[in-house]
Fold Peroxidase.
Amino acid sequence: MSTTVSSSSSSGSLFFFYKCSFIFLLIVRTSECINNKQPSNPRRPRELKVDYYLKSCPQVEDLVSTVTSQQFKDAPVSGPATIRLFFHDCFVDGCDGSVLITTKPGSTVLAEKDAQDNKNIAVEAFDSINKAKTLVESKCPGVVSCADILAISARDFVHLAGGPYYQVQKGRWDGKLSMATRVGSNIPRANNTIDELLKLFASKGLSLEDLVALSGAHTIGFARCEHFLSRLYDYQGTKKPDPTMDPRLLKALRMTCPRFGGNPKVSAPFDVTTPFTFDHAYYSNLEAKLGILATDQALFTDPRTRPIVQALGKDQQKFFQAFSEAMERMGKIEVKRGRKHGEKRIDCTQHMLL
């Protein structure tokens, strides 16, 4: 996310997608106190398991699927937005549903949802989780965490868009803390270097391979002009465009994103060839200098990540396998278990009353 196409057909294709992009918006953590005398049979924290709700709510995945399937039909933007929501949740203090919390009226402490990096996540993603939670609560009250519903929903949307169907391990509890000030330093920036990205991913227990595989989520979804505008007009202070961008793509993006006075809500697809299909074209695009974000294109220009980009660009099943495994690893970041560290919310937008 490449076969080379002729100049005329490529230009026509790009013009078509970027003309369309004008009407699209970016709608697109257990420590245990040890006494001097060790318990004879210490209780270990439960691990995440695929069948965690086998007895308590065996139909949970079917219930969530009912919502995600309908949501995908009614509002396709729910797909990439929910995948992004899951990523942002896991990277900020772990996969605990804290990104779903709404700031209390009048509070001076903003929740994660209201951090600048989360304000542009399409509301449809939050709607999907809230609808799924309501349905699950009607059948299995007080059992399934919002964090698990988010993880299941993200998988569903990947599959609905043509991507892999992978087993979701469950057993997360919802986090008791949600602070906007925790977001900025834990979310990748559009102009990060590969070194900066690798450092951030390593801090989450993720590898270089995970970075490249998870970046493949950009095979669907859109980016607002503000996230790549400098590449079009003043790359790294040179007063010139990014030389690693295909000239035809540059021209098309400049039509969509003027240097000054443009509509801040206008966006362009991450994947200019198959923007609505979850496939491996994203990697082929990077080889063809068709990456939208600087961080995307850098995956191909950096010699450490280029071989992985090339391998995933040649083999879709290899990408699907790598992506599924990376999503499983990401889904285990700082997982909360038990009432000491977590809660099971009835309403995903509000912490439980203490």
